[in-house]
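User: Let's play a game. I give you a shape written as tokens, and you guess the letters that built it. Ready? Here's round one.
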């Protein structure tokens, strides 16, 4: 399942013009996505080499270390690599068109693995050597890549090949790659270039939901009381980190779904709120009036929008990692824009 990859690593002095933040977003007004690398000069990259790499993102004390390798595409179909989130067909179609037009892959699929501490021990030893590539981007993330020795690479492949893997970032790219693989006749040797992190190697976050106004705050509070323990935020201002919060009618509420949670998707905060609060509150207009928003948007800005139109904001806590694994192990999928992991591996640092 896991094997050395033939790929090229960017040179440190060329990284600034070739390495870009990764995004699944399609180009505005088209079904395709611009190639983030454009047409890099051949000497911007080290010669192609088959092997295993270690990739580190570091900013201050925040460090995320993964192993870069090929993962057989068959593993994404037989349960050895498991997803947890549904995909938007239109986005998948756009990526299929893009990948077919630009066969060079500049982006890494991020996976989580349960291979255990042996992988951590090997990668820690690799980090003690000078990296092949080392640079700091404009956003402050220091990015480093190491080539792994053949002996260490065999140990990593052996440990990772026996592990279960979970898609952290790249559900749409995996779906598009599978569509192209089907179109090509399902070649057995096909693989995806991935970076494999330990289960707690990335941060798990949740998208927020904003409901455009007007919203009846009394009815919203009544619906919340029926399925959740609800208290008003003691501070009166923006809530502290942790837990799920709701902002409506100038007030922050702390909500916790009451009772025993069902297994899998049914036990997620988002599922409970959508089914027992948003659906009865908004009816058929729920999809049109509910927007998914990244945690990078300031809470004060979102609360201000709610003050302007009488809407409501749901600041969801991310599910526990154990919940995500449970959903994936059960073969279920969460709604789109339920979770995301960060930091994302950057495009253009390692190229097939």
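Assistant: Ready! My guess for every position:
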């Amino acid at each position: 399942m896991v094997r050395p990859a033939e790929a090229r690593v960017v040179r440190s002095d060329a990284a600034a013009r070739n390495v870009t933040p990764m995004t699944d977003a399609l180009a505005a007004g088209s079904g395709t996505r611009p190639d983030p690398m454009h047409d890099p000069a051949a000497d911007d990259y080290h010669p192609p080499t088959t092997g295993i790499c270690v990739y580190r993102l570091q900013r201050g004390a925040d460090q995320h270390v993964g192993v870069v390798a090929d993962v057989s595409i068959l593993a994404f179909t037989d349960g050895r690599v498991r997803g947890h989130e549904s995909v938007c067909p239109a986005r998948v179609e756009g990526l299929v068109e893009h990948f077919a037009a630009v066969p060079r892959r500049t982006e890494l699929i991020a996976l989580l693995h349960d291979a255990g501490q042996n992988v951590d021990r090997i990668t820690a030893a690799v980090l003690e050597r000078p990296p092949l590539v080392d640079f700091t981007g404009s956003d402050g993330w220091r990015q480093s890549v190491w080539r792994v020795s053949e002996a260490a690479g065999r140990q990593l492949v052996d440990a990772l090949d026996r592990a279960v893997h979970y898609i952290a970032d790249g559900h749409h790219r995996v779906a598009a790659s599978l569509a192209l693989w089907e179109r090509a006749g399902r070649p057995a040797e096909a693989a995806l270039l991935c970076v494999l992190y330990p289960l707690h190697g990335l941060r798990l976050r949740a998208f927020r939901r904003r409901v455009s106004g007007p919203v009846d705050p009394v009815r919203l509070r009544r619906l919340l009381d029926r399925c959740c323990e609800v208290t008003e935020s003691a501070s009166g201002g923006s809530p502290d980190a942790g837990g799920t919060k709701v902002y409506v009618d100038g007030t922050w509420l702390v909500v916790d779904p009451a009772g025993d949670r069902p297994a899998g998707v049914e036990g997620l905060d988002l599922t409970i709120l959508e089914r027992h609060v948003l659906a009865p509150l908004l009816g058929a207009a729920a999809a049109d009036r509910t927007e998914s928003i990244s945690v990078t948007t300031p809470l004060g800005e979102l609360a201000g929008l709610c003050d302007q139109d009488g809407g409501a904001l749901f600041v969801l806590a991310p599910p526990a990692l154990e919940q995500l694994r449970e959903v994936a192990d059960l073969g279920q999928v969460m709604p789109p824009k339920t979770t995301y992991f960060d930091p994302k591996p950057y495009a253009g640092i390692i190229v097939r």
